[in-house]
């Protein structure tokens, strides 16, 4: 009997063909998954459990996780640099020590990582560069200059070299993107040099080594919040921009999560952020107080004129501000005011804010 223009034999053939194609697709998917699992499982095991001959490994100061992984793979201590990097990231390992090591092909990844975290520094530290939280790029360039002998102009030239920035974007795609090359952004790496202390064995280390150590630290810190960023649909650029505003407004006594809530509440209702640190950044100066005339500065960073976030970070935020940007308190506050004592007063309405402002400004 004919059905829909097909004879029973034709129907059987179609069904058989569909079954075979489906089976092949399922087989390929399963085979790929099994193959990937077997490859990763194999890469996590020792290269040779019976070979306990020590292999000399040298990890220079300033080495990144990628550098270490490549060295270990070339020396035959691990099977895959890529798996090592992903394992380190997944397990949230950090603080690897520079030094001379004796590792074997019989060691497991946890044993190798444990050795690298306990190693002795192979060279005497000649320079320590400490970047405080909340410093902007020009401040950081000044600190680097004072510690290394480079002029501030040399440091700034390296930090603003577009070709160099492109190489960093390719090297650190997990945090850097073409967002930093937006024409409205003053300095591409603003906010991406993490505030911390960096040690170097040379009195005048290459500027690229200094800069990349700081970017690498940003990768390490921001990477810890990858899942939260994904859940909130945050790019690293957006996260660091908001965190920089929080950092710039925070005092030692400030509750950063409440400050974050004010910014988000304003963004939610389309209210300008009106945060004074963006005015100072637009002016390119440090001042104790922002005056009415300052609020008219023509700049994409002027959050009194332009709604929404500025084009990019205005300083390097610390981890507390990054956390606050991702985990703000749930409040209805729209205003906050820092007192001369460093306390921060939060209010819901402009009337309340002006009342508190008059009270504390009068004390100054």
Automatic annotation (TrEMBL):
<keyword id="KW-1003">Cell membrane</keyword>
<feature type="site" description="Important for catalytic activity">
    <location>
        <position position="249"/>
    </location>
</feature>
<comment type="function">
    <text>Functions as a peptidoglycan terminase that cleaves nascent peptidoglycan strands endolytically to terminate their elongation.</text>
</comment>
<dbReference type="GO" id="GO:0005886">
    <property type="term" value="C:plasma membrane"/>
</dbReference>
<keyword id="KW-0961">Cell wall biogenesis/degradation</keyword>
<dbReference type="InterPro" id="IPR003770">
    <property type="entry name" value="MLTG-like"/>
</dbReference>
<feature type="transmembrane region" description="Helical">
    <location>
        <begin position="18"/>
        <end position="40"/>
    </location>
</feature>
<keyword id="KW-0472">Membrane</keyword>
<protein>
    <recommendedName>
        <fullName>Endolytic murein transglycosylase</fullName>
        <ecNumber>4.2.2.29</ecNumber>
    </recommendedName>
</protein>
<dbReference type="Pfam" id="PF02618">
    <property type="entry name" value="YceG"/>
</dbReference>
<keyword id="KW-0456">Lyase</keyword>
<dbReference type="GO" id="GO:0009252">
    <property type="term" value="P:peptidoglycan biosynthetic process"/>
</dbReference>
<dbReference type="GO" id="GO:0071555">
    <property type="term" value="P:cell wall organization"/>
</dbReference>
<comment type="similarity">
    <text>Belongs to the transglycosylase MltG family.</text>
</comment>
<keyword id="KW-1133">Transmembrane helix</keyword>
<keyword id="KW-0812">Transmembrane</keyword>
<dbReference type="GO" id="GO:0008932">
    <property type="term" value="F:lytic endotransglycosylase activity"/>
</dbReference>
């Amino acid at each position: 009997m004919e059905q829909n223009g097909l004879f029973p034999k034709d129907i059987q053939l179609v069904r058989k063909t569909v079954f075979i194609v489906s089976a092949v697709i399922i087989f390929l998917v399963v085979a790929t998954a099994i193959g990937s699992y077997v490859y990763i499982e194999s890469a996590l095991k020792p290269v040779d459990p019976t070979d306990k001959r020590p292999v000399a490994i040298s990890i220079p100061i300033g080495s990144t996780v990628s550098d270490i992984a490549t060295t270990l793979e070339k020396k035959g201590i691990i099977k895959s640099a890529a798996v090592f990097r992903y394992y380190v990231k997944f397990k949230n390992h950090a603080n690897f020590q520079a030094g001379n090591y004796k590792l074997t092909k019989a060691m497991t990844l946890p044993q190798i990582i444990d050795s690298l975290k306990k190693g002795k520094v192979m060279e005497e530290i000649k320079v320590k560069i400490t970047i405080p939280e909340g410093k902007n790029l020009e401040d950081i360039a000044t600190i680097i200059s004072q510690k290394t002998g480079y002029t501030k102009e040399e440091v700034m030239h390296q930090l603003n070299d577009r070709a160099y920035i492109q190489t960093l974007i390719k090297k650190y795609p997990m945090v850097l993107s073409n967002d930093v090359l937006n024409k409205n952004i003053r300095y591409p790496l603003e906010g991406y040099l993490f505030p911390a202390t960096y040690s170097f064995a040379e009195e005048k280390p290459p500027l690229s080594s200094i800069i990349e150590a700081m970017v690498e630290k940003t990768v390490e810190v921001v990477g810890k919040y990858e899942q939260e960023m994904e859940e909130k649909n945050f790019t690293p650029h957006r996260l660091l921009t908001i965190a920089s505003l929080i950092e710039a407004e925070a005092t030692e006594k400030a509750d950063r999560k409440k400050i974050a809530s004010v910014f988000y509440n304003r963004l939610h209702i389309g209210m300008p952020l009106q945060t004074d640190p963006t005015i100072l950044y637009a002016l390119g100066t440090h001042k104790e107080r922002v005056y009415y005339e300052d609020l008219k500065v023509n700049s994409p960073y002027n959050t009194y004129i332009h709604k929404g976030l500025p084009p990019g970070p205005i300083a390097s935020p610390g981890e507390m501000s990054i956390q606050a940007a991702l985990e703000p308190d749930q409040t209805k506050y729209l205003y906050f005011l820092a007192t001369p004592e460093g306390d921060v007063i939060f209010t819901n309405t402009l009337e309340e804010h002006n009342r508190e402002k008059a009270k504390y400004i009068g004390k100054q």
